[in-house]
Amino acid sequence: MATPAAAIELNSLRRRSPRRVLPGFGLTLGYTMLYLSLLVLIPLSAVFIRSLGAGWGHFWDVVTDRRVLAALRLSFGASMMAALINVVFGLVVAWVLVRYTFPLKRLVDASVDLPFALPTAVAGIALTALYAPGGWLGVRLLSMGIKVAFTPLGVIVALTFIGLPFVVRTLQPVLEDLDNEVEQAAATLGASALQAFVRVILPALWPALLTGFALAFARAVGEYGSVIFIAGNMPMKSEIAPLLIVTKLEQYDYAGATAIAVVMLVASFSLMLAINALQHWALTRHGGR
Amino acid sequence: MAAAKLPSAMDARLSRLLLIAVALVFLGLFLALPLLVVFVQALSKGIGTYLLAVADPMALAAIKLTLTVAAIAVPCNLVFGVAAAWAIAKFEFRGKSTLITLIDLPFAVSPVIAGLVFILLFGSHGWFGAPLRAHHVRVVFAVPGIVLATVFVTFPFIARELIPVMQAQGKDDEETALSLGATGWQTFWRVTLPNIRWGLLYGVLLCNARAMGEFGAVSVVSGHIRGQTNTLPLHVEILYNEYNYTAAFAVASLLALLALLTLAGKSFLEWRQPELRHVAHARDRTRRAIT
């Protein structure tokens, strides 16, 4: 028999442990897991299972094929170059947006997200129109002897466009948090602006720079729409790996397409884990200050 | 002292101007010029040609399909986003960070591979190819495949925006409503939803932009049947490959306008709710606040 006092005790106990007070945990978590499994996990596992089905020997033959290797080299190499360009200029853009004021700054800031919002096919044909031999920029570059469209250089240009917001948006909040006083202290101690930047600011920015680089790189490796128009898509020269997957699919070579997809998926998942680790590192560093 | 300070102040101004110039030239080359060239090319043969290209029956069919696909894919991911954010932001459970990583997974997958997975599942040689054929159901090279591929590539958008927003809000409001006798659904509709409305809109806006603009994934599963499985971005590609540049840029200008509207809406929402900026960072901050 529960006495009233015991009932009150029980109630207050319940109130003291707020775990599971809100309803809907089972429903929402269950739905999340179901939806995630049906739309993402099972479909993605199909790639790995199908690839196993074709056998290791076939997989190895596909991924060591000269044309496939050339495409993978171009995809990863051009993505690396584009991400490096974005690290350098993204740092300048983020710095200018955080530290300085100038006319139309808000508009410039908002425009940084354009590559997120503009459909990749539109970006692709626009960049091609600009850099083609008869285009606004192509004409001038050609007169200097530089061919951009339909060469690997064109691939780098498209991937730079695609990766641009990642570095800027990763750096901006870190720069906003960075104390101006540290630099001023460095300056009063006789450090030049450049010294202050290299010794004081750059070390604080490393994790964010690396994260931005990795995010831009990861996005660029898989990019398709903006690249295929400007690349020219010559096998062994300017053919990216995602395009090779599409080409193999069009030839009904499912096993070949799947093998390339496995290589790219393993690379992107490793990158994703690296980015997570980087962010954790940045976080603990930040919190330890 | 003053004489020594003067050149350094000039240096500072000079380096400031130089850096601003570098940033603006870089953004001008990579953002402003591509956007400008779309509209210049679209209108290069006059407004009449432009309107003809946009009002072409195939273009109209593409617009209709794009709107239909977004109208299915975005609500699907909206319901999922709200459910996932509720479970993750309001409760503690093991494997939470793994779950967040898995939700982000589609962002790490090439759009082409997002299309490929549905060919492997539902294509004629796919796992479910034979039973689908027996029942005369077409998924791949038909609208259902386009919807699936679009849902896949836009999967994390809304969940990812909502999780930090709900985490920042905590669960005090909901617990108060419940203790005052509201049911779970009442609490959700009257307390949680009004609290997260800006974050929700933000996620829907970004999700919609990607859903309407997706090219790679949709291209793989579409089959490019004109008037039937051609979305707007695919229509741009077809026109472009036919050397019909003016029409290609005219249709592309519609998508560019959508992008500009999206950016304007995004800026408006960030002005209403400044926390929405730098979402990844906000998530880190809430994580820091929790631990």
Structure overview:
The complex is a heterodimer of chains A (289) and B (291). In chain A, 81% of the residues lie in helices and 0% in strands. Chain A has 289 residues and is an all-alpha fold. Chain A has a single domain (58-288), classed as MetI-like fold (Orthogonal Bundle), CATH 1.10.3720.10. The radius of gyration of chain A is 26 Å and the shape is globular. Chain B folds into two domains: 1-42; 47-290, MetI-like fold. In chain B, helix 1 crosses helix 13, helix 3 (57-90) packs across helix 10 (184-213) and helix 10 runs antiparallel to helix 13 (245-272). The chains are: A mainly alpha (289), B mainly alpha (291). Chains A and B meet through helix 2, helix 4, helix 5, helix 6 and helix 7 of A and helix 1, helix 3, helix 4, helix 5 and helix 7 of B.
Largest sheet of chain A: none
Q: Outline of chain B, from the CA principal axes?
A: globular
> How would you describe the shape of chain A?
globular
**CA radius of gyration of chain A:** 26 Å
- Our estimate of the beta-strand percent of chain A is under 5%
Helix content of chain B: over 70%
User: What value does the average pLDDT of chain A take?
Assistant: 88
- Low-confidence parts of chain B lasting 5 or more residues at pLDDT below 50? 1-6, 280-291
What CATH architecture of the largest domain in chain B would you give? Orthogonal Bundle
Structural class of chain A: mainly alpha
Based on DSSP secondary structure assignment, what is the total number of beta strands of chain A?
0
Helix content of chain A: over 70%
Looking at CATH, the homologous superfamily of chain A is MetI-like
